[in-house]
Amino acid sequence: MRNNREERREGLRERLLAVTTARIESQGLSQLKARDITAEAGCALGALYTAFGDMDELVMRVNTATLIRMRELIAPVKGETPVARLQAQARAYIAFAMEHPRLWAALFEFQLSPERALPDWMQAEQEALMGLIAGPLAQVFPALPPEDLLIRVRIFFGAVQGAVQLALQDRFIAVPRARLDAEITALVEALCRGFAS
Hints:
By secondary structure, this protein is an all-alpha fold.
């Protein structure tokens, strides 16, 4: 049973996470400032570092929650074939990125300092998201050994991610957003057909 101090600390963590999530969603990661977060959460600046250790941990907690939301959206999608399921997953990924562009972008904009290792809890969520791709991809390429499948999953995600990122950020040679679903669907089919097993 938790005592009052633990409950207050958990309430503080939840407020800080909610404020940080809302600020990233509305303004983006680059505009995030500890003083603004704590002022809105109604606590002293030092309380943030008591609750999370530092800003990096706070942002990683928000990013981990974003990964969970994304996984919960993608996990239920179905397809008559493994390729169709991968295509449906890609479309769900695009939908999430378009609905929450700044939260989605924060996953890729955040840089952990090189001397720090990614926490196990965040790495586990990244792997869980990649596992959604690994299932149908393993059916497309059943002869691939597990270590090669992992690389194939990363290449697959990277190809889709790159096209989505260019389109959503209106970068050079970006696919128009109106064509993104159709082109990613075609890209997934081409990747599955074109890889040598």
